[in-house]
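Retro notes, structure queue

What went well: the backlog is down to a handful. What didn't: a couple of records were mislabeled last round, so from now on we paste the full input next to the output in the thread. Example, using L,D-TPase catalytic domain-containing protein from Afipia clevelandensis ATCC 49720:
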Amino acid sequence: MKRPPVRALVTAAALAAGVLLAGCNGEQLSPSSKANRPIPDKLLAEIEAKNMDKGSPMLVRLFKQEAELEVWKQDRNGKYALLKTYPICRWSGDLGPKVKEGDRQAPEGFYSITPAQMNPNSGYYLSFNMGYPNAYDRAWGRTGSQLMVHGDCSSRGCYAMTDEQISEIYALGRESFFGGQNAFQVQAYPFRMTAQNMARHRNNPNMPFWKMIKEGNDHFEVTKQEPKVDFCEKKYVFDAEKPAGSTRPLAFNASAQCPAYQVSPEIAEAVQDKQRQDELKTAQLISRGTAMARSRAGIDGGMHPIFASKLPEGDAAIDRDVTDYAIASNGPAPGTVPAHATIPRAPEGAPSSFSFTSPGSNSEPMVAVTSTTMPAGTASANASAANSSEGFFSKLSRSVGLRGSEPAPAPAPAPVTTATKAKAKSPAPSKTARSAPPRVIPLERQQAQAQPQQAKPAGPATAPAAAAPAPSHPQSLAGAQPAVPANSFDSRWSTVR
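Corresponding output:
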């Protein structure tokens, strides 16, 4: 009498369990749901062509200055390889880490993304939470929440893609989880960690932090494996292992002293060799006149040129100083840019985003970091950088014999004559002439414009140095900016100015 009801209950329980299990099976989920859309066939073909599996582990790298997102996947040989680069539609804030809630800064550092951080019901189409603040951020008292990579091309401290792009990235992450990956790593950088970029940003007050996360970048680039990330003494530690002969597991605490650990000698040697080469290249670039990066003061975030060029007046927002884009700006935009998308621009009354600081100035933008949130030793390093235009790499270049023993003193201002004042005065434009469209002045001309104009004395030169010819500079490396005469802008473009 009791067997049929019991059998019915068992059958019902089995069906319920089957429904629950089906919910964890990506192949059984509704294809109409945006969070469960399959990876496009073209991308699946690229995965196969690169000797990867759909469910193999993935890793994401973000670069603010270039506004590009890279997706890497593990191939069948166990190494990570670049699968695809996506242009970022919008990011907000400035170069530098996020410090506090409301500063509009997109995070920089290393973050781990678990399935619980994937949001299929995001108000920005789809998203995943970056996990800010991590243990390092919390150790420095940094605040902020809900920092995402999402769609909708709109950012307030996030990395925003188009809806079509985030759909692909979300699907790649979902399939990696289904393939057995517990969490994928996100590495967020201010720019590609090249010698050229380190030279251009050499006096930025965030440089100590950037050097620290560059070490993690170097670990990844020399091993093509996801670096193991730990935190101690309020700093990042990469690929730490137990010392030889130790039986106790390593215990890391972001705010406590580091335990005794070692890095595999093979990895440590490869990383040190890469760092030595990068530092030497950086010193060479500085000694050969590589200009410092422009000031971004007042500019809110950035946008990849492939999107900016498609928006009204977007050409004016393209960073002409960036030359290492992986994606050309003359192709079709990958996805729909919504009507509410805005280009990064300076606030009303602020200097133009294309104005350069003179090579000797210290007006690099800096994050509002208080003494309670600044890494140890950073305050003194920043004070030194603020009092002298010569940065760390400039000193390094002299130590390896690439520059003179001391930086050249600034030339004394020449007397201004009446003829000089007349020459500097620009002719008034005709009232009937139409206003010309905004121009983007090439980098070398802007650099010349930023240099102080030296007027010729009325009488003969009194100092021997005034009659000496300008020293010739050695051949520049690829990407280094050539030296330009200080009067080249006035001689050719005085009317425009």
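Agreed that this is the format going forward. Reviewer comment attached to the example: Confidence is low (pLDDT under 50) at residues 14-32, 351-390, 396-497.
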